[in-house]
Amino acid sequence: MTDYTKYRNVSLSHETYQKLIILSESIVPDVKLSISKTVETITKEKLRDNQKGEGNE
């Protein structure tokens, strides 16, 4: 059973979901990530990049 204190759900268009499938196969070479892990990985990367950008101003 899902632990609702740790996880949330999101709704995606079919188009976005299909793009995430493509990304899930290309983020880590030779590994197919789950859609959830793909979203998590992209989010962490974007936040890290954003924080680096703020430090340069």
Task: Give the secondary structure arrangement, pairings included.
Elements lengths: L13 H11 L10 H21 L2
Kindly describe this structure:
It is a single chain. The protein is mainly alpha-helical. It has a domain at 33-57. It is 56% helix and 0% strand. The protein contains two helices and no strands. It has helices at 14-24, 35-55. Helix 1 crosses helix 2 (35-55). The radius of gyration is 14 Å and the shape is globular. 4% of the residues are buried.
Computed structural class = mainly alpha
Instruction: Measure the end-to-end span.
Output: 46 Å
Low-confidence stretches: none
Which percent band covers the strand fraction? under 5%
Q: How much helix is in the residues?
A: 55-70%
**How would you spell out the order of helices and strands?**
HH
Count of DSSP E strands? 0
Count of runs of 4 or more consecutive helical residues: 2
Average of per-residue pLDDT values? 91
